[in-house]
Each structure stands twice: as C-alpha cells, then as structure tokens.
C-alpha cells in the first residue's frame, strides 16, 4: 500500500541528468497506469539544484487527480508503467518540464525532482 506520509527527497549529488530518470521507491501491485490515463496522485516536487520544495499535494492535505496528457512531458513519460500503490521518483530535465531558462515559467530552466504516490488510475 502507498506510504501514508509525505516523502523526504534525498539531496542529489553531482550534475543534473540530461535525460528523464525514473526510480521506483515502492513498486505497487494495483492497476498499471498507461499513457493518457487519468491518475490520482500525491506528490512532492523539489528543485534539483537547491532542494527547495516548490509544490506538494501533501501540504494541501489532499491528493490531486488529472489526465496525464495535460501534464509536463516528464510526468507523461514517467508515470506510465507505474502501478497503484507505488511510489516513484522522477528526475526531470528542463526540456521535459517547463522548458529552457526564460521560457516564462518560474521553474523554466530547472531540473526538477518529483516523488509521486499513485493512488488510483481512472
């Protein structure tokens, strides 16, 4: 079953990866997410370089549900294959997140780390 507590993200060492890095922390045993599915998740996101948290569903006290196709490319590529009950870490380079520096989003140009708990697939 999915961990009932907010994950703590270990501060990474070395340079940010140029490609999407997918690390399963806990492998779920439920329904497997497929591209284009609607997913319900709990997540926390931090900046790779600073470790500063920029978003967390845990802080709002509720999970969030959305279609994968509406999300950043790193989530669209990194969540399929994950099973309900699992916890996965995604390290997402800027080109799969909010684009290069100056692209207009406060996280543009940044490598991001998300830890995602998959609660349901719809």
Automatic annotation (TrEMBL):
KW Isomerase (keyword) present: yes
Catalytic activity reported: [protein]-peptidylproline (omega=180) = [protein]-peptidylproline (omega=0)
Enzyme class at the top of the EC tree: isomerase
Keywords recorded for this protein, A-Z: Isomerase, Rotamase
PROSITE patterns on file: FKBP_PPIASE
InterPro entries: PPIase_dom_sf, PPIase_FKBP_dom
PANTHER family: 39 KDA FK506-BINDING NUCLEAR PROTEIN, FKBP-TYPE PEPTIDYL-PROLYL CIS-TRANS ISOMERASE FKPA
Family of this protein: Belongs to the FKBP-type PPIase family.
Name listed for the protein in its UniProt record: Peptidyl-prolyl cis-trans isomerase
Organism: Nakamurella leprariae
